[in-house]
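Customer escalation, tier 2.

The customer says the design service returned an amino acid string that "doesn't look like it belongs to this structure." They asked us to rerun it and document both sides in this ticket. The original structure tokens are below, unchanged.
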């Protein structure tokens, strides 16, 4: 799982909102045109498919919609790939977000390799997917093909060694905001923002205005932001979360607890990117398990 996800196309890290030019002493606002082409995403894993659904809920499904996301999301054609192999940082099985993609795709492919050769089993998810399938040579899958595909995905799930116990995790984190484990992780965390940048569901942004040296050109940009930066929680008088401890606690508690209150779903899809791309190896599943274990001991 690479550091980039489909968020890079649907909710890009940098996008110009508008520009302005001074003409005869008056500024003229130039609106940016919308996307000039539709997207087709090929090779979407189940965890990322779930992440797209989470972003849909956040950026489309609330009272206020993000028009930039809506324009880019409109008409996206998705070819999913069922996972037949897991790596050491995957934990989608315990999050019930994979490795088998259930919904949200137009077509889903499962790679099959056996004595009969190399081929793909295709599952149709939408009418658009069916229409495309009719344009290429194909034949009906056999019972053996279906068995092999199912066994391949089940093997990928069995390969996963990391596990996130989500039982009452919202209440667990809310009741342990002063747990000593937060100090432990803060001693290692660099507040580098890697985890939020690679996460396929993190959506926070900031606004930056720029002008050229002449003062005749100005631009407004929207850029991805991170709750790990000092300025993220800045209000009049200073930042609310000045320590690495408070910032990591905010991120993890939002992902696994308050996201449920806001959007009715978890903010974590078990892709493992935050573990893979953390330069000091902080593991969100390990941190959640450590808090659960000591909280259990305290109650016995």
């Amino acid at each position: 799982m690479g550091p980039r996800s489909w968020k890079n196309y649907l909710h890009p890290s940098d996008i110009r909102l508008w520009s302005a030019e001074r003409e005869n002493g008056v500024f003229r606002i130039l609106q940016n045109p919308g996307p000039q082409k539709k997207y087709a995403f090929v090779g979407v894993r189940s965890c990322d498919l779930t992440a797209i659904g989470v972003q849909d809920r956040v950026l489309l499904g609330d009272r206020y919609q993000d028009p930039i996301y809506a324009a880019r999301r409109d008409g996206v054609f998705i070819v999913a790939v069922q996972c037949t192999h897991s790596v050491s940082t995957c934990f989608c099985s315990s999050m019930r977000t994979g490795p088998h993609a259930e919904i949200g795709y137009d077509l889903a492919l499962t790679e099959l390799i056996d004595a009969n050769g190399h081929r793909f089993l295709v599952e149709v998810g939408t009418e658009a997917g069916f229409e495309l399938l009719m344009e290429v040579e194909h034949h009906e899958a056999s019972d053996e093909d279906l068995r092999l595909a199912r066994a391949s995905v089940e093997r990928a799930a069995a390969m996963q060694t990391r596990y996130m116990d989500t039982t009452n995790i919202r209440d667990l984190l809310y009741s342990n905001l002063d747990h000593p484990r937060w100090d432990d992780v803060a001693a290692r965390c660099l507040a580098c923002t890697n985890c939020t940048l690679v996460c396929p569901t993190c959506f926070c942004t900031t606004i930056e205005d720029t002008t050229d040296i002449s003062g005749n050109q100005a631009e407004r940009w929207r850029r991805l932001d991170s709750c790990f930066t000092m300025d993220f929680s800045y209000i009049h008088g200073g930042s609310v979360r000045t320590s690495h401890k408070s910032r990591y606690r905010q991120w993890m508690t939002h992902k696994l607890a308050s996201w449920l209150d806001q959007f009715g779903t978890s903010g974590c899809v078990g892709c493992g990117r935050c573990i893979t791309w953390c330069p000091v190896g902080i593991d969100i599943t390990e941190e959640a398990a450590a808090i659960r274990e000591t909280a259990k001991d305290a109650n016995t």
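Tier 2 assessment: The sequence is consistent with the input. Residues 55 and 61 are 9 Å apart (CA to CA). The mean pLDDT is 93. Sent an explanation to the customer and offered a walkthrough call.
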